[in-house]
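$ run holo --ligand "CU2-O2 cluster" --emit tokens
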Amino acid sequence: MANDQQGLLYLFELPQEDIQAPRGGGPVLFKLENEEAPPSVATRVGVSPSVSMPVPVRDDVALQDLGTATSIHKGSAFSFFLASQRKAAKDLCDFFMMTSGAEDLMQVAARVHGKVNETLFVYAISFVILRKKELRSVRLPTMVEVFPSRFVPQEALAKAQMQINRMDPNQTEPVIIEHGLEFSGTHLKPEHRLSYWREDYGINVHHWHWHLIYRPGIGFDRDRKGELFYYMHQQVIARYDIERLCLGLPRVEKLDNCRIPIKDGYFPKLTISNSGRQWGSRQDNTLPKDLRRRELGEFVDITDMDIWRSRLLDAILQGFMIDCNGDKVPLRDDVTSGKRGIEILSEALEADAELSVNFPYYGDLHNRGHDILAFSHDPDNAHKEEMGVVGDLATSLRDPVFFLLHKLVDDLFQEYKVTQPPYTEAELFLPGVRIERAGVVRGNEANVLLTGWNTREFEASRGIDFNGKPVILRLTHLDPKPFEYHMQIYNDLREPKEVTVRIFLAPKFNGQEEEMGFMEQRILWSEMDKFTVNLKPGKNHVVRSSKESSITNLEELTFKDLENSVPGNTSEQVAFNFCGCGWPQHMLLPRGRPEGMALQLFFMLTDYAQDKVSNPGGVRRCANGVSFCGMQDAKYPDARPMGFPFDRSPAPLLQGLPVNTTADYARLGNAFIHDITIRFLGEKLN
Ligand code: CUO
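-- output --
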């Protein structure tokens, strides 16, 4: 095996094809001892393999050892929200976890490839690579290249195939598939105006990665996993709402009642795992029903959903949950030891059966919500339809119903958050430092940011076999022009002071074009960045690039990036992109409006001595996207509750004066609020 990266990288390529099919565009070949390559592979014209990956017979890889992993049909959907399929994933992950080192994993995985569902396979090897310390240097290729059919409609892929069938066999230039802007529907339906956002590849890949890292039923407790489930999804809803306001659409409403029809349908036009099977479509005004999927062994009653929700709400308002022994478990965020209430609540709401204080009692509201919605078009398999995209981690954000469900989830979290005592002035104020001025600069212009369209290319032929020919996906996406934050900060102390800089963005006006009060704006504040600065005594000019954001992932790593990342040739991008998790950099800003949209930036400095979390020394993995993704093998690097200071209601008085708007927080010297404009150019950016 050439190196760990290469040995494992090609397991991700062509997930639907035989493992002995040529990979790496032709030169890489897994050779399984005692297993004939399928004739279609052996006779492929023009293939001259130069990298051979021998896979000896492994007597230890037996189907019976895979547990329930083989229970999910190949070519069908795999949903992490279904309890039975979570169990299958756990069985396969456990099996791969028993390997030691890259070569061992490669051999075992190559033997298992083809015996299990393709998505499950990719999920499990991804999980194990991220989990195993000895595989720290191995990066994952982007899901866009592994499963292109999750990102572009079948029609576009079929067109590329037809073009290849007709073209001169000696042609070497790739076929290009353009996709974007028209997305999945027309603007006859207002919701489709948001398709560019919901169907963005980066947002969906982020969601897949996030759940890969913060998997329920993982068997161990990742630091603040529950709180991060709340926070990351809350921030997604906030950003979605901001985008809606940019387009003049109302903020998303929660899925309050599963006994009335869901107004908006969704027709994904995508196929599953490159297999040709379609994801289920939901008509407008579909009435959710109890789930009765016998073939999957999955049954969910809407009544149970209602009961779980009511029990969770009860716990929130009473201030405690009841554990399996009947004992009270207090829900409070102002604790100095043990878990915060938000963590306990979240583990019961998501739910993680192993970490919920009382899984039988509080149930499985969020996961089951995904299930009910994913099968609402065919709840009893009468039509033998596949699940809808909302059941899959890499596609669920495409469907508007995802946001209705997650608004319901967030609504429960917010019910809890407003029961918590507001932050005191002592918790908000940092004496000795003050922000004199703060804003954004782009080129020579201050406080006006620009967005437009851009394109990014991926190799579709890494995930789908187009007769061995190269096919490029050219995806259109929103993009901001890069900018910088500039802050003029005075440190009035005699010695240097380390502070955490927190930067948030929210619209200034609501849908009625009125300035928002604190509570209306509170859950719209989107984290833009969070970083540490050591302020010297006196005046400090702090400059920070938008590309350094603590929430974003630099870029998706392609197969080509990773092939070029042999030791000694590690690009900066690869070196920093540790786990692929993080909000896409190209979606850092909301779209804005052509005429300019009024937004506000909120800056706050807090005492790093109080914020810092001691982590044992060692390599910082997943340092990118840290606010949404945490750090691998380390504690979440901010001791404050996630979303601070906007996760709670405001104190009624600050410095003796009432707090009505966020600007009242900015009366504190360590905070600052500033108006900016975002203009959407509606054209391709240079
Ligand atoms: Cu991420 Cu419901 O948790 O999709």
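-- notes --
Residues 207, 211, 233, 366, 370, 396, 406 surround CU2-O2 cluster (CB under 6 Å).
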